[in-house]
């Protein structure tokens, strides 16, 4: 029989610690109405390499759209998006280095439903949002890659493979960090008629920053779960990791709600309640593990004060602005309600420890229990074990432009043939003076005016 003052970690705690939102990528809308071959027929159909690229683009987009719509295995979706990515980059580069000959026979119009939004009917998917910019298509494809990694991580967690889950969520975080720090800042000119608020979360810098923090926090949740499976638990370390998770989630809330409020309001209500739940849970777990570490050091009164504070954080909050578990945990049919049995079990576990510790403090150690945890005894800053790394997909080596010119204009074809293998071009790293959206608007204006393009 185990010592009631030092009981084993309950399985309910492990399940709560690894509870996750079911992430899914966005969805391509009206895929059949956009064909690269048709749009670039005059500029590219007579060039074998360009014609092949356009056919590959159209097929790759159809494959990606089919996978996203049917909700196929996230690993397959990741594969489709990874195949599509270099193709769309090649077309974008070709248009950048040949702006005068990158003419359209029909307008490009990319339609997506964001995977991080819930402002459409049902509250689980975003409304259709459109843009003619190739950079929009590229941004959403990168978003699919990030969210596919997150979805794969959820699967690993359910299977109990926490090491693999750490890797998947870290990959998702790295892709979001690339969006935030490299890709989206290059999209420098959205145009007078298009603002970041008109596009999905995946195209907003602050949303990418926030979700990078969330996915890092998920990776750290998985690391905590792995640590709890060991024969000996380092309570001090795990407590600091839980506080670090809470700090990462709080940074997500601060950044997105504070600086991308339009997108915050679009997010599914269930997701925002999940975020509130995890914030309070990680706060409680951080104090719980610190209490166990402090008890082991012989500071019994302070440890009991910590345990009582941890138990308080597991109670349902009094209002939506106060600390505590969201009230949805008690609402039958609510997504959070599935966690109620484990939460009740964890509460009973902590109650049992509190009773045993109180008895020892009063009858064995005669240690005074402070009314609150002394400031000097609290964890001042959590530990961020998971760091951002390089995203392998950011490497654009081997991407070369294909020729674009109107058939019959020998001067243009001669000009292309004379270009060196690696033509001087405005790289993504240096930004774009003329963004892809600018090019799209110029071409669209010519089409609308009936000019010869």
TrEMBL record:
One Pfam match: BRO1
Record InterPro entries: BRO1_dom, BRO1_sf
Domain of life the protein comes from: Eukaryota
Compositional bias per record (Basic and acidic residues), positions renumbered to this chain: 426-444
Region (Disordered): 400-453
Domain BRO1: 50-392
Protein name: BRO1 domain-containing protein
Origin species: Triparma columacea
